[in-house]
Design brief:
Blueprint: E1 17-23, E2 30-36, H1 39-46, H2 57-67, E3 73-80, H3 83-99, H4 121-131, H5 138-158, H6 163-176, H7 180-194, H8 197-207, H9 214-224, H10 231-245, H11 248-258, H12 265-278, H13 281-291, H14 298-317, H15 322-327, H16 329-343, H17 346-360, H18 363-386, H19 393-396
Antiparallel strand pairs: 1-2, 1-3
Length: 397
């Protein structure tokens, strides 16, 4: 039988289990009944030299065939959603073939094998702890790795069009059909692994220099589009981003990556379109509320001034006059042309009008705006009277 037809059976479960028979190659008589979730591999395991060492009726029969240059044939009979159902079917098939006079080489009446389908979370955790920390010898790991790589390469060359898509479908189905208990167990293991710096560094090194194909990026974008993040997730992401941005090494890497990088006109147009699309009334409202009534501390103002002075000095050393460029009529006209083009667009006008109308309709926002204007006026009076900024938030309290 051509085992490639096995993968054409309905894949409606995470890992289907098959009941099969091993038959005489010349007469087709049924000699063995079994169950497996990987028929191709199971047939190879039956004829593996390490599996034929034990003195059993089945092994003796297979060795006698191999001595004559023959091999048993496999016939897949049924597919089952669980191992328990497959075990019951295996028992029924053995009884049936014995009743019609088949000379089976099965050592038992069927239903054997260890099933972990009904294991609880405590049982899985205990089994994991028993093997946790046990490392295989380096020679054995290298040998197993070479065998696995050779197997994947063989499938990639021979059965790429059939085998890999079916395996991918089975993996996706297995991920979707996990119980909440299994999902919690997997999440706990993942969190435990990601908590180790050496694991995170190994993952980072494995991704260095790798870029996703356009097809892969399109799939990721389609999968994430429309998803709503919970407030807790947003808070965690904001905290992680704030912590990352406060790292001097991270900021230095960003600056080095951006230095000398020219943005194309197409990218500028895309960024501009995305920025305009993001300026919804709700986002404008959040931005206004975030900045309303804010007063920079003296330390912040000094830091901003020092940064600007350093930037101007650096540009001047390179022969670039920043102040002259800001006063350059062509530069000013270019900026004004951009503003005029933006506000002459009817859609932009309607969007800004809707945003302002929504803001002014909110009494709380009007009160905040009035207070901000009052604070601004007091600051201007303080500067005009004393020649320096003498207002602070403490004075407002």
């Amino acid at each position: 039988m051509d085992l490639s037809s096995v993968y054409d059976l309905p894949m409606t479960v995470a890992r289907p289990v098959y009941t099969y028979t091993l038959n005489e190659p010349d007469t087709g008589d049924v000699r063995y009944v079994g169950k497996t979730d990987k028929p191709k591999r199971r047939l190879q395991e039956h004829m593996r030299p390490s599996s034929l060492r034990a003195m059993t009726y089945k092994n003796n029969w297979i060795k006698s065939l191999m001595q004559r240059g023959l091999r048993p044939t496999m016939a897949v009979l049924h597919v089952h959603p669980t191992n328990a159902l497959a075990a019951l079917e295996e028992i029924r098939l053995i009884e049936y073939y014995l009743s019609i006079g088949c000379h089976l080489v099965n050592a038992t009446r069927g239903g054997d094998g260890i099933s972990t389908e009904s294991w609880t979370l405590e049982m899985r955790t205990a089994a994991r702890k028993r093997v946790l920390g046990q490392k295989r010898p380096a020679a054995l790991r290298e040998r197993l790795s070479a065998i696995q790589l050779a197997r994947w390469e063989r499938h990639r060359i021979n059965d790429d069009a059939v085998w890999l898509p079916k395996c991918t479908a089975a993996l996706i189905a297995a991920a979707r059909n996990r119980t909440p208990e299994q999902q919690a167990y997997n999440n706990a293991r993942r969190a435990e692994a990601l908590g180790k710096p050496e694991v995170r560094e190994k993952m980072r090194q494995s991704h260095l220099g790798k870029t996703n194909s356009p097809e892969a990026r399109a799939k990721v974008s389609a999968a994430n589009k429309g998803q709503k993040r919970s407030p807790e997730m947003k808070a965690r992401m904001a905290a992680a981003d704030k912590k990352r941005s406060a790292n001097p090494e991270y900021r230095a890497k960003l600056a080095a990556a951006s230095t000398g990088h020219a943005v194309s006109d197409a990218t500028r147009a895309t960024m501009s379109a995305n920025r305009r699309a993001a300026n919804t009334p709700e986002s404008l409202r959040r931005q206004s509320e975030a900045h309303m009534g804010q007063e920079r501390t003296a330390e912040t103002r000094a830091k901003i001034g020092a940064g600007l002075s350093a930037y101007i000095a650096e540009q001047k050393a390179q022969g670039v006059d920043v102040r002259a460029n800001l006063r350059d009529p062509a530069t000013v006209e270019k900026k004004m042309a951009g503003h005029r083009a933006h506000f002459s667009d009817p859609d932009n006008k309607a969007k800004h009008a809707e945003a302002k109308k929504a803001l002014w309709a909110d009494p709380e926002w009007r009160a905040k705006w009035t207070e901000a204007r009052r604070l601004s006026s007091e600051r201007k009076r303080a500067v005009s009277n004393d020649g320096q900024m003498s207002f602070s938030l403490e004075d407002a309290d």
